[in-house]
Amino acid sequence: MSIFLNKEVKEYTQNYWFGLALPILIGWSCSLVSLSAVVARNSPEGENTLIDYFFFTCFVMGHLVIWPLLSWWLIQRANETDNIARLKGASMSIKLYLVWLLLFIVPSMMSLFSESG
After folding, report:
1. Model confidence at 89: pLDDT above 90
2. Given this model, what pLDDT does residue 10 score?
3. What span, in angstroms and rounded, lies between the C-alpha atoms of 46 and 65?
4. Does the pLDDT at position 117 exceed 60?
């Protein structure tokens, strides 16, 4: 038995969650896969190779660049196809990204700069 009474409600909910979850999952998956690759490498301490720098870059770009760019792309696609549910989901993803920046990234950057100066 389906929990949805109406097919339109089911479609709306699926599109909303697609717009919300897809950018978050892809961005964080890229970050976590890159982080696990860096941790799994057996390189001597203090000696980073080009591959290590590539994985470090992918780790940072996953949740700071890929997540908002994918959300923005989904918003553009939702505007073209008039998919309101996907538009609202992708907009919520951007809002969650801004909360992520304000609550976690900005304070950690401030503490990093205050310790180094």
Report:
1. yes
2. 87
3. 27
4. no
Among 25, 30, 21, smallest CA distance to 86 is for 21
Burial label, 86 (beta-carbon count in 10 A; 0-12, 13-18, 19+):
buried
86 contacts: CB under 8 Å, gap ≥ 6: 15, 16, 18, 19, 74, 77, 78
Instruction: Please check whether residue 70 is in contact with residue 25, taking contact to mean a CB–CB distance below 8 angstroms.
Output: no
- Mean per-residue pLDDT of the chain: 90
Backbone φ and ψ for 45, nearest 5 degrees, come out as: -65, 135
Tokens of 71: 């959300």
Residue 40 in this model has a pLDDT that exceeds 70: yes
**Cα distance between residue 23 and residue 98, in whole Å:** 13
